[in-house]
Amino acid sequence: MKDVMIDIETLGTGPESVITQIGACWFDWEGNVGPTFLKNVELSSATDLGMKMDPQTVKWWFEQGNPTWLKDAEPARRVLSELADFCRPAENIWSHATFDFVILQNAYRMMGNRNGLGYRKARDIRTLVMLSGLTVNKEDCVAKKTHNGLDDCLYQVEYCTKCYKAIKGG
Questions:
Q1: Where in the chain does DSSP place strands (E)?
Q2: What is the CATH number of the domain that holds 163?
Q3: How far is Cα of residue 24 from the mean position of the Cα atoms in its chain?
Q4: SS3 breakdown of the chain: % helix, strand, coil, rounded to 5?
Q5: Which domain holds residue 39?
Q6: For residue 148, what pLDDT is reported?
Q7: Of 132, 95, 139, 135, the residue nearest 117 (C-alpha)
Q8: Among 9, 40, 63, 164, whose Cα sits 20 to 30 Å from the Cα of 49?
């Protein structure tokens, strides 16, 4: 496996948003999933780095019920370092590149790590979907979007592999 899928949960939508949870998984284009990563981030350690909360997003989260990122949180620096180690061998790192990847790269910069995940490895899910020409019926996916970082990675792998196969003609 050469590819990693990442999904983050945040308390905002801007580039300096507080990261509350990071999910990631290795995968191949047949839809197989390898090693996984799921870590919750201590809110105070994120704000100590300079990440910011958006009141509307915080309100939205509390309207959703009991977020999974409230338990077993770890310091932001540790979680981000472990994510970088997890992703280091990857040739491609997939995410919503205008959201997840931007926020993560800003978090690494706040830590003093200028390269973080390696900007040349960034690949965008939205572009893949657009190029496939598919209207992805996400309701047909076995995995469901739950706003849990790892669940959402598995969901994204499922519909992205469908798009990839459509592009490749298989």
A1: 3-10, 19-27, 33-41, 73-74, 92-95, 122-124
A2: 3.30.420.10
A3: 6
A4: 45, 20, 30
A5: 3-168
A6: 87
A7: 95
A8: 63
- The tally of domains found in the chain comes to 1
Q: Which amino acid is at 27?
A: F
Structural contact between residues 161 and 31, judged by C-beta atoms closer than 8 angstroms = yes
The confidence score (pLDDT) of residue 102 equals: 95
Q: Enumerate residues 6+ apart whose C-beta is below 8 A from 125.
A: 94, 95, 96, 97, 156, 160
Residue 40, both tokens = 């919750």
In sequence order, the β-bridge partners of residue 8 are: 22
Cα separation, 13 vs 23, in Å, equals 17
Walk along the chain (170 residues) in steps of 10 and give the mean pLDDT of each run.
Answer: 97 96 97 97 97 95 85 96 96 95 96 86 93 72 70 92 86
From 64, 71, 92, select the one nearest 6 (Cα to Cα). 92
Q: Closest by alpha carbon to 80, among 20, 131, 12, 165?
A: 20
